[in-house]
Amino acid sequence: MQQKLSFSEKFGYALGDMAANFVFQAMLALQLDFYTHTFGLTAAQAGTLFLVVGLGVACLNPVMGVIADRTTSKWGKFRPWLLWTAVPFGIISILTFTTPQLSPGAKIIYAWTTYILLRAIYTVNNVPYASMTGVMTADPDERTSISSYRQIAANCAGFIVASLAIPMVRFLGRGNDARGYQLTMGLLSVLSVIFFIIAFFATQERIQPDPQQKTSLGQDLSDLFSNRPWIVLFLVTLFYFSAILVRGNVMLPYFRFVAGNVDLFSWFNGFGLAALLFGVACSTAVSVRVGKRELFIASMILTGLFNMALFVISPHATYVIIGTEALRQFSYGLSGPILWAMMGDVADYGEWKTKRRATGTVTAGVVFALWAGLALGGAVAGWLLSAYGFVSEAAVQTARTQAGILLTASIYAGLFFLAAAICLFFYPLSREKNQSMANELAERRKVFAPKANA
Predict the structure, then answer these.
(1) Average pLDDT, integer, range 254-282
(2) By CB count within 10 A, which of 54, 162, 186, 309 is most buried?
(3) Which of 187, 181, 18 is nearest to 97 (CA)?
(4) Phi/psi of residue 431, each to 5°?
(5) Which residues, at least 6 apart from 63, have a Cβ–Cβ distance to it below 8 Å?
(6) End-to-end CA gap in the chain
(7) Coil, helix or strand for 362?
(8) Nearest of 188, 194, 125 to residue 159 by alpha carbon
(9) Radius of gyration of the chain (CA)
(10) Which pLDDT tens digit goes with each residue over 81-126?
């Protein structure tokens, strides 16, 4: 079936992911280093913070999915949350990357409070946003196209954060990294607020549940746990985002303490993210030919192997490191839109099988796995650094610590990517099955044919 969206709607929707990723990418690439090198936490304290808060707030995702599914407004179920959360999202982001002049104990309380608030507002914003992919169009291929737009925007945000954030911190802080982080995140947060508002006005929700569908939380959860594609996607997401954070949190220490040149971090990320964007841009065309599942499997295997290759490369072989990272990021980029497009397909499967649709609950369950993966990955990174004797205040780390940083960035993170690939072999939705479900559901929906929201 065909249900094409305009370029302006796809672009506007994508700006919402760019807005969120100014903060999300900062959490991936900078937050551990910010907490240990600037704020004053130890690596173990930061790792515990990431795990406890991450797992705790991750439980808010299913709750938010249930709330979003039951939201009634003239703008739809999911879209209004972009408008309602925009300003709080920006304010809390700035506060989280602010270093107050407090006692060590009070600073720990401040870190926990602001990080909890950041993770909470991100969830309240992001679960409805992610759910919109499944309700803007019923066309499975068009969902991949939407996801490609948002992934390009998200990775543009990642490019800006990874390539420019550290230089901006230094320039704006003028020797005061705490001030530099606050101003840098302040600028990015203002852009986030603006982009969320644009995304709200640019988009529409077209797919709605049958108006006669009875609301039942127990039935929604029962349907979810009997949905095999959802269970597989949950596990894939858990390993996928654990891998991202295990690697992301140690690359800055890698360049600072192993390669011995922190300035290379921006070049490394710049070339890598350019390759990632190219991979994302190719994803839709390739998935249409080979299928989402097959492309995702190949992407995870290649990403894991290129990740592990860092272990055997000399830390001073700059061009080889950057070239390998470009190959890794291109491979990884091919999978970026697929994960988000699959969420809509999994919601379709649930509706096709049970005649009940709960897009927000399905999406929230997978996003729960995302945040659980981030919590696990952040904790693993912090704990591994601590186990290998990492001292945040030290200008030089021991040989054992340097070896631990290298192992974490290469082998350990690579194993998480390969675990995601293994899970995908059990994902049952082929390209043909997705198209068949979409066509059958389109016929069912003709009965009540809801009007699109203005």
Answers:
(1) 86
(2) 162
(3) 181
(4) -60, -45
(5) 364
(6) 23
(7) helix
(8) 188
(9) 21
(10) 999 999 999 999 999 999 999 998 999 999 999 999 999 999 999 8
